[in-house]
Amino acid sequence: MSAAYELRVAESETDRxxxxxxxxxxxxxxxxxxxxxxxxxxxxxxxxxxxxxxxGTALGTGRLLTGAAAAVKNGGAEDVGxxxxxxxxxxxxxxxxxAALVGAIEEAARDRGLSAVDLHAQTHAxxxxxxxxxxxxxxxxxxxxxxxxxxxxxxx
Length: 156
Description:
Elements: E1 5-9, H1 13-30, H2 35-38, E2 47-53, E3 58-65, H3 67-74, E4 80-88, H4 97-111, E5 116-122, H5 126-131, E6 135-143, E7 146-154
Parallel strand pairs: 4-5
Antiparallel strand pairs: 1-2, 2-3, 3-4, 5-7, 6-7
């Protein structure tokens, strides 16, 4: 597989559907997260970022929550965005797509005047986020039956 791909904010219905398809493949099919937990009301107003190959194949996605929606996830700070639903298609893993998506989400957070980005990382992914500058805080907790830790990075 070629490593050439484009990152963009998913504004069209087609792009948003591609984001949801990657999430379904990774979280629902691979990880067994119940579909009703994977998709939520935050998806409506979230900034969705999509990595897509030239041929239109969706490689990965992630979302940024802002304002009150983010505050629900990060302990009440409305100047801190919440990165979530980061998913990379199995065939695209190891190409740097995940790190590129995180960078694009951080850029979207800066563009919106946010000071930091918070996320809830599956514990097996802590090292990935630490390499990107995130620091874990607080205790481990379950989300959809999967152990997670809260993490944060200053971006503003």
